[in-house]
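User: For a benchmark we're assembling, each entry needs the component sequences followed by a predicted structure for the full assembly. Here are entry 17's components. Please fill in the structure.
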Amino acid sequence: MKGSIPVSVNRDEAIERLLGRGGATAPQPADACLAADTIAGWFEGTLQPDERAAAERHASACDRCQAVLAAMAATEPAVPARPAHGLRLVRWLVPAAAIAAAVLFWVNLRVEQPRLAPAAPPSASATADNRSTDAAPSLGAATSAPREERKVATATVPPASRTKPVAKQAAPQANEALSQLSEDSLRAAAPQPAQSPARERADTLAGESPMLGPAMPPLQVTSGAAVIWRVTARDTIARSADGGASWVSAKLDAPADFTAGAAADSATVWFVGRRGVVVRGVGDRYERRSIAEPVDLVAVRPADAMTATVTAVDGRTFTTRDGGLTWLPGGLQENPAAPF
Amino acid sequence: VVPIPRAAAVRLYEKSAAARWSVPPAALDAALAASVARAFAGRDPSEREVERYLASLHVEDLALALACAAGHDEAWNTFVRTMRPGLYRAADALDASGGARETADALYADLFGTRERDGRRESLLRHYHGRSSLATWLRAVLAQRHVDRIRLARRLEPLPEDDRLPRAPETPDPDRERQQRRLQSALGRAVAALDPRDRLRLACYYARQLTLAATGRILGEHEATVSRQLARTRRAIRDEVERLLRADGLGDEEIDECFAAIVEDPGRFDLGRVLGKESVPDRSI
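Assistant: Structure for entry 17:
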């Protein structure tokens, strides 16, 4: 038995994995569901504090009310994201950023080009650090390399002309959530099918060819020995937590032409692509975190799950410290005093 | 019944433009009193609390709803003209294929009140108390109807054929199965012990698979805050799971084995089931 236990166990990943299996399976507390005027007051912020607390207590255990809240969230008029800082700061930041960008442009011309110049590795795969966020030390890997020896992902992707357009999917979040209501109930009620890893892998690999063409290997990112992310289509990323034996595919909200990717840790991955596309994945969930400019991105260097620097084709860099919600020009080293 | 201060009643009647729809002051007073009673159910609010609450009400919408419920033609036309576009936008956001529009259209019959009770039309609008805008209340009613419709349809779907039923995975290793059960049980207890708000956040993000942004809209938090709070909750869960396993007499190596068993095969853990029990049909509005 013990012989089959991995040397290092990422407990955080195990927790994430278990939570990620949560299906909406109709829990229902004893008290009555939230009334329409309570739900409306919830979203307009007019509930009394004790009412709000009671409503949250109920909703935390009620499948139906969670679904209704999700539907409400999906039907709210879109509100443009607020800038992270006040306008005054932006006014101050713009000229400073322009100067920094000009300097960085020259710096990157000299630094980035030699790094990107070598031919892509045979598998075009990217290796991220084996840094463990786990408190439990790894018996074998802990002594193998110091933290500073992080290898950052660089990879190439086929030109746009080879890619096959994929219909944009615009399914509302609520329907995604609602569509699980009974499927998950049925799934949870019955034992999970034992899916053949070989079959699942074959399915995944079969999906690669339309996007990548025969000559181009898929864009792939690894973290340690076990976790692998692979772009299997313009709108699909697959993840394996067992070294490629089995894969879980996830559809993105829209297709993109990815150019590079890198893992921040065994649970978090960053992918960048053309026209400013940035996608951040946590576990098997992927969310778009694109930069404002539609410039082609060629590299990404994550520092951790929330912090990453992307490099544009013209050498400029952009950094986020909040998981990609806001991006500011400059790299982490180049602009350490940037007021995030 | 909490009495409505006379001065406030007069001021709100004027503000609501209820006279435009021929809504008598007594009808608005009764609606205000019902709204106050509902908001402060089981409590005895001070006059100041009542004043503040009354000032926050959407009294113009309340007057319109009262007029529509009473069968005022012009009010009804105004209601339909002003509310329908927003309702349809919400319906399209829920279901782009048009299914929710049917639900929205069906809603109008209940809003108008096609049924009678004791000689009075039973309009759904009588359940509107002015605590939010009429448009948001309508969205909430639509969301409830849409969810109920989907839940009902799912319940009526036939079960898959026998050969498509998921089969029990083969678990030749009883040790591993026991480790999975131990960790799942500890995780269940750790989640159950969380603060309701943390559990709701987990439910939205993991059980309902909402994005950080949508979860944030429900919790009233920025998505970066949601992300941080989820990370904090995961850490708390992990610490609690480890504590519980240690309390069960497991050592570090055995705890590692439990986590490893879960990484290999998460088994039948279902966060939704941990968060509550089986649902029963219900009845709100």
